[in-house]
Amino acid sequence: MSSDFLPYGRQQIDDDDIAAVAEALRSDYLTTGPRVTAFEEAFATRMGVKRAIACANGTAALHAAMLALDIGPGDVAIVPSITFLATANAARFCNGWVMFADVDPATGLMTPESLTEAIIRTHAIGMTPRVVIPVHYAGQICDMPALSRIARDNGMFIVEDACHALGSIDSEGFTVGACEDSDMACFSFHPVKTIATGEGGMITTNDPELEKRLRRAVCHGMVREEADLTDPGLSCDAEGTRLPWAYEMQALGYNYRLSDIQAALGLSQLTKLDQFIARRRHLAGLYDEQLNDLSHLTPMSHLVGQSPSLHLYVVQIDFEALNKPRQQVMAELANKGVGTQVHYIPVHHQPYYKRLDAELELPGSDTFYARCLSLPLFPTMKDKDVTRVVNALRDVLVE
What is the pTM of this model? Predict the structure, then answer.
């Protein structure tokens, strides 16, 4: 790949990030240590939430959230079909059932109407939905107040998949992750996301009991705090004195911990979150201006009243009217040094999930998938790079 090739996304790592990691490497802690705690506290403060629990990646965050809710056989998670595999898989890891919801074909977001329809389908097969996992696709925010009302009326928990939406602010002024309309929110720090820790994730919540369950889930089901210990035979000597090494495994958990090295990078990156968000918004604005007159292409649809932190810039292209398949468009753009990607193949079409429900039809998801294409968007792009992408599109989208 040439040095001037524009991928659809990439991290921005500066000298201060490298210095922070080097300092961690020279410290006494490489695995879980003081930097993890500091990262959790700084993240919670930035999101305006009471508690944040660091973990290994976004998938681990989603899985831990399902474990904290005791999702298991007979429990149904409602998930939009336009998302990454991990959103649905998190419930299946716990042997829960997945019911896919349709999305708005213009935005890729779950809507109150599609959630209601998925609840009706769930009841029609004799099951009861237990949790809904809205996905803030590309960084734009679902209508959380409406989704929350529907979920609560149906006795459901709400876990936000906010892996695309770090720093997004909804129409009521709340930052995604504040959990104003949800029980938990899950984030990813994969390199193409808004901040990077290599791999890494975070779960936010305002519920102290959920925090306890989450911390157990990401650390082997284990507790050490004296107030949490329940078996004196394990935790005390014959005289009833607390053993300094005492710990208990109270539930089945996983090694989903974040390292201090990764947390050091996360802390450094978090200080630049506003800078990263502003740059992404600026670049998206340039795309909006320059893509207005391209035939067969509709610029990204923006929701009124939100201030999204855009993870992706997704356009809609009518490939059928263009009479040129998407793979050809992508190949021609790549030849011009422009990388693109498709986010995502609807999960309900994946072979694993088709074996569970082969008859499901979600027209909004199919329409969105048929036309979506993610263009390069990352903070180190220059303004002229947007013009370069748009000019490449002009050349490629000629009939």
Answer: 0.96
